[in-house]
Specification:
There is one protein chain. This protein is mainly alpha-helical and 440 residues long. It has a single domain (13-206, 222-425), classed as Growth Hormone, Chain: A (Up-down Bundle). It is built from 19 helices and two strands. A two-stranded antiparallel ribbon has the order 1-2.
């Protein structure tokens, strides 16, 4: 029986797009207060080592690998829609443990507080990993295939606009609390922001709650776990996509905590400065995400993703140029990172097109969590490596200036980011893999 590839029973694309935009708006508004700059600067108040910071930043991506187990759950226990809602709500409840730990941990050692924050982050993102893979798979059935690029573009557009607004408002709130709150009360600013953000994110399930669950059309035996994973690795096109995303995650993850530590402790960029740079980056992503959706549906994904990611790798030049005396160079990286407006759309539409329709949770569960796991391990390795370099006092004199362990890691990451896109050239088609035509 052939798999339907361009219809969504009982749901119009306009309704799906409208409800998706509402869900994304609410989720992003809450999510922005619990991740990124707010989380990093909150954790940095405990003065963690580079290794501790790397572990906490890598934990979300590591535990999101739980998404690999989404297929057994949706095939045996509940629909993709139910798993999305349950995982998101339960994950956010677990995340509320972070401000609770911060409150109860006052007066305790940083290591003890950070350990419990790690536990809360682990539970939060394991549940969110299951939730997100189920959501992506469900959405691929709700939206007609001919509109996938524009669907992801509209979702990304909402994400960057709301994040931009929240970053701007957050920067103003940070400046206000610094000017009006005594140091011993500024801690509560982060606790309240995180708590409110978590509650808001939970309400994001409401706009899409009335859409049909759409049962998964099985391509593989419903009782098997390994068969779809083997199929993903055996298909050349999807394998090249996995190699690209793994290579990219390795190069980017290596400097995840290193960049944060460099900006805060070396360049002395305050949170409001970070939020202003982020706002510019997101403004660029707003424009490019719209363009990406149209180009994806009309021209395909592979070549667009290759060229964009190759240009994106140049962003790591700017941390090499930035110094405590010239921190403004770091702003250039955020401008180039605006190209993620294209990458973050096209990488997912390409994964959708190369995976089987409907029964794609294992493929998507490999694509996203594999990248996350790689980035997590690379992030920890980067933090450990940086701690060792700083402890040893490593430095080199070259081109009229001194280069430290930070710069060594930036250079390695630059080389990795610049070579990763070439895996994409092994993908022969932007459509679904040939073997899928006979899969059912």
């Amino acid at each position: 029986m052939p798999i339907e590839t361009d219809s969504s029973p009982g749901v119009s694309p306009v309704e799906v797009g409208t409800r998706l935009a509402a869900t994304q708006t609410i989720f992003t508004a809450g999510h922005a207060l619990t991740t990124g700059g707010f989380f990093n600067y909150f954790v940095s108040s405990y003065r963690p080592s580079a290794t501790w910071l790397a572990v906490l930043q890598a934990a979300p991506e590591f535990f999101e690998t739980a998404g690999l187990f989404a297929r057994p759950i949706v095939m045996r226990l509940m629909s993709r829609k139910t798993l999305w809602i349950a995982g998101l709500v339960l994950g956010r409840l677990a995340a509320l443990g972070i401000p609770l730990v911060a409150i109860l941990g006052q007066g305790r050692s940083a290591t003890e507080v950070l350990s419990w924050i790690f536990v809360a982050v682990a539970a939060w993102y394991a549940l969110q990993g299951l939730s997100y893979i189920a959501f992506l798979s469900w959405l691929s059935d709700l939206a007609p295939e001919r509109t996938w690029g524009r669907v992801f573009a509209s979702r990304q557009l909402v994400y960057v606009v709301v994040t931009w607004v929240m970053s701007t408002l957050g920067g103003q709130a940070v400046r206000w609390q610094k000017a009006n709150l005594p140091p011993d009360q500024q801690f509560w600013f982060y606790v309240v922001a995180f708590s409110v953000g978590g509650v808001v994110a939970m309400f994001s399930v409401l706009p899409m709650a009335s859409l049909p669950p759409l049962p998964t059309q099985a391509v593989f035996d419903r009782q098997t776990f390994l068969a779809p994973l083997r199929a993903a690795f055996s298909d050349r096109d999807f394998r090249c996509l996995l190699l690209w995303v793994t290579h990219m995650a390795l190069a980017q993850g290596l400097t995840q905590a290193v960049l944060t530590k460099y900006q805060i402790e070396v360049l002395k960029i305050p949170l409001d400065g970070y939020l202003r740079m982020t706002a510019v980056m997101l403004s660029i992503q707003v424009v490019l995400s719209v363009v990406a959706g149209v180009l994806s549906d009309r021209l395909g994904d592979r070549n667009l993703l290759f060229g964009t990611h190759l240009l994106l790798s140049a962003a790591m030049i700017f941390p090499l140029l930035a110094t405590p005396g010239r921190p403004q160079w770091q702003f250039g990286a955020y401008i180039v990172w605006g190209l993620f407006g294209i990458v973050n759309v096209v990488m997912y539409t390409l994964a959708w097109r190369l995976a089987p329709r409907s029964d794609n949770t294992s493929f998507l569960g490999l694509f996203r969590p594999l990248a996350g796991l790689t980035a997590a391990l690379a992030g920890i390795a980067g933090g450990v490596w940086l701690d060792q370099l700083l402890q040893d006092g490593w430095s080199a004199e070259m081109l009229g200036r001194s280069w430290t362990g930070f710069h060594l890691l930036f250079a390695v990451s630059l080389a990795g980011r610049a070579t990763a896109p070439f895996w994409l050239l092994g993908i022969r088609t932007a459509g679904r893999s040939p073997w899928l035509a006979n899969a059912a």
